[in-house]
């Protein structure tokens, strides 16, 4: 009886799930079996929590053609999928996300990274960046979990000019709400002057709206990318 029972139990499936419309999300692995997920609804609820979706996951799609998965039995072992709410499937190159870690979703993002490198290297080539007053910060856009942080190279002289710094942030961030009015730390506390900025730290550019406390770093900074940024900090 026991051997028959084991034979009837469907084997576990290992799948990877990406977040719809997010080219930088590395994917989450799930072991799908009947004991852990007795229903498709239970699987959707777990995916919602695990990938930290902004809205409840209601649909699962194949990553290349966007075919909808209707039940647990349609999942294939070793395959990848895309989780979405009620919005349409967004066709992206989810399976090669690693090649896009340093490329933003906006056309100027890659240029911003490239423009940053010589700025920092010039500091390194002539001496310590701290001695010369050269440093950089990384800045997220308030409420935006699709765009990676952009680098903000600074010197002590420029960081002291707060109005000029906000103007630079406005140009780089290109917020939907308009001009950048304030800069916040990841815990939501506001930075009031350039002297408070810390080399290598992450901040959030905010307009007139309230700061939105979201997992910016966890979702938008891949582990490999985070380790690479240490190279730039003396």
Automatic annotation (TrEMBL):
Keywords: Repeat. One of its GO terms (cellular component) is microtubule. InterPro entries: Doublecortin_dom, Doublecortin_dom_sf. Residues 13-95, 139-217 form the Doublecortin domain. GO terms for biological process: intracellular signal transduction. It comes from the Eukaryota. This is DCD2B protein. The gene is Dcdc2b.
């Amino acid at each position: 009886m026991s051997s028959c029972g084991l034979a009837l139990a469907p084997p576990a499936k290992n799948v990877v799930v990406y977040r719809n419309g997010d080219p930088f999300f590395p994917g989450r692995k799930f072991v799908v079996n009947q004991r852990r997920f007795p229903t498709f609804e239970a699987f959707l609820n777990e995916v919602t929590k695990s990938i930290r979706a902004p809205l409840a996951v209601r649909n699962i799609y194949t990553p290349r053609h966007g075919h909808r998965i209707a039940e647990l039995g349609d999942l294939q072992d070793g395959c990848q999928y895309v989780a979405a709410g009620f919005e349409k499937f967004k066709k992206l190159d989810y399976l090669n996300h690693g090649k896009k870690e340093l490329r933003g979703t906006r056309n100027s993002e890659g240029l911003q990274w490239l423009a940053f490198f010589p700025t920092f290297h010039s500091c390194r080539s002539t001496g310590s960046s701290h001695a010369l007053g050269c440093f950089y910060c990384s800045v997220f856009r308030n409420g935006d979990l699709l765009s990676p942080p952009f680098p903000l190279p600074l010197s002590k002289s420029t960081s002291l000019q707060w109005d000029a710094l906000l103007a630079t942030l406005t140009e780089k961030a290109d917020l939907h709400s308009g001009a950048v009015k304030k800069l916040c730390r990841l815990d939501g506390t506001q930075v009031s002057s350039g002297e408070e900025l810390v080399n290598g730290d992450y901040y959030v550019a905010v307009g007139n709206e309230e700061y939105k406390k979201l997992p910016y770093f966890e979702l938008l900074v891949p582990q490999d990318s985070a380790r690479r940024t240490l190279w730039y900090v003396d």
